[in-house]
Amino acid sequence: MMIAISACLAGEAVRYDGSHKLYAPLKALQNSGMAVPVCPEILGGLPVPRAPAEITGGEGCDVWAGTARVTGSDGEDVTGAFKQGALRALEHLQQRNITHVILKANSPSCGSGVIYSGAFDGTLKSGNGVATALFEANGITVWHEDHPELPALIEQLLQNGKSA
């Protein structure tokens, strides 16, 4: 089974501040050919570095419904870039028949179940990011890197890869 992972979790310096959030077990999956990195924000044309962004007025599904926006801490509305990037990422996943993704927790693109509040004060709220909402609406299973079952899944994938 091929999965996709957030590019920042694979060690790529694509985060808003130019950093990464390497999660070594996911990088091992990529190195074994069982995972491909994806970054909806980069696919949407956002630069590195860039102002941090949060969803205001709701969560990812509300962005798609047109009732919420993605705004940078500098006040710039980056909703269009987030939506374009999510659509391009979905296209990449569908072309590769990928049905499971492991994404960066709390992100306005990739957050799964919890995202930043939109107030740029470090608080969290329930909800999904823009890409996560689109992926789930299209039948793709989304986990974040803190999912309690992730270590077992990674171990299973690596073992299956060795026996293949």
TrEMBL record:
Organism: Morganella morganii
Name the record gives this protein: DUF523 domain-containing protein
InterPro entries found in the cross-reference section: 2-thiour_desulf
Any one Pfam family match given in the protein's UniProt record, by short name: 2-thiour_desulf
Species lineage: Bacteria, Pseudomonadati, Pseudomonadota, Gammaproteobacteria, Enterobacterales
